[in-house]
Write a structure and sequence with these properties.
The chain is mostly beta strands and 187 residues long. Helix content is 14%, strand content 44%. It is elongated.
């Protein structure tokens, strides 16, 4: 008949094949699990100013326009946690089109949610965590923009996917032009 090593090999290969089939089923079924998160996003204030940002990756230190946003986030994402959810990566982006650059997406704010207790977000009059800046150093020619709330569930097993849940339009104003001070000579 068969010796002990052949029997162990047959049992191990059957167990591994069964385990791989189970892994494939879990990774395909996880995005189909029902979840009903509640969320709202409100934008209060958009200010554009001109200045130099202290960016450690931009050594040129050029003067550029950048935007400061004030927004609210209300979200109950606890229904997105299931047996295969390790954590949620929640972030807000500002999306706009500018001349010369078709799509610009800037992450404005982000947070990692590790459990259901942290999944209830309530931010009031929160400012952007990261600078909103255009590659052209100016927002000239930018017509409109969208502020979008994204949720990215990170599973223990399976593929990650991005879920944009809410988007609101807004307008990026131009920075006020600094007025040169008139120097008066004393007579």
């Amino acid at each position: 008949m068969y010796n002990l090593l052949q029997r162990v090999s047959g049992i191990t290969s059957f167990a591994m094949s069964t385990l791989m089939a189970l892994v494939v089923l879990i990774s395909l079924a996880t995005p189909l699990l029902p979840s009903s998160p509640s969320h709202s996003l409100a934008l209060h204030n958009v200010q554009t100013t001109t200045g130099r940002l202290m960016d450690p990756f931009d050594k040129s230190s050029r003067s550029a326009e950048y935007t400061r946003l004030t927004f609210d986030v209300d979200a109950d994402l606890s229904s997105m946690f299931n047996w295969n959810t390790k954590l949620l990566f929640v972030y807000v982006t500002a999306d706009f089109s500018a001349p010369g650059f078709d799509t610009n997406r800037v992450v404005v704010w982000d947070r990692i949610i590790r459990n259901e207790r942290q999944a209830k977000l309530r931010l009031r009059r929160h400012h952007n965590k990261y600078a909103v800046r255009n590659f052209a150093l100016s927002f000239e020619g930018v017509e409109g923009a969208n502020l979008t709330l994204h949720v990215n569930p990170v599973p223990y097993l399976g593929l990650m996917y991005d879920k944009p849940v809410l988007s609101i339009p807004f307008v990026i104003p131009r920075a006020p032009v600094p007025v040169a001070k008139a120097t008066a000579k004393k007579v």
